[in-house]
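Ligand-bound model needed. heme C.
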Amino acid sequence: MNKLTVFLLGFIALNTIASNASANELFAKADLAAGKALHEKNCIACHASSYGGDGSAIYTRDFTKVTSAKGLVTQVRNCNTNLGLKWFEEDELNVAAHLNQTYYKFEK
Ligand code: HEC
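Prediction:
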């Protein structure tokens, strides 16, 4: 095998491991209370203005785009970037963990 093949196989293996990470592993160090507070401060008002109530209907709608814990982190990251909140990765994980515990309940 040449170096490129070894590199590509390593890359594929790593990605496979990462995409199989369980929600428990992903959110092992998450601070749920911090995630809840950040979410209340930055995220609810806009969702509530388009979805009514406390805005949480956006997370429980039938056609959710989010299908895994990892996908949830990605979605939170995209919102963070789009909104220019400059959150750290830790903040994204805390908010995703809070949303998972409260609404999505993904195990994977
Ligand atoms: C300016 C308005 C606005 C703000 C602020 C906002 N969102 Fe959203 N969010 C939306 C809209 C609109 C959608 C639906 C997008 C779509 O359907 O493609 C969405 C969708 C989502 C979803 C996917 C819901 C699902 O299951 O399909 C998540 C998760 C989410 N937002 C998280 C956040 C987080 C976390 C924050 C705070 C950092 C945030 N949003 C702030 C407007 C906003």
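The chain is about 70% helix and 0% strand.
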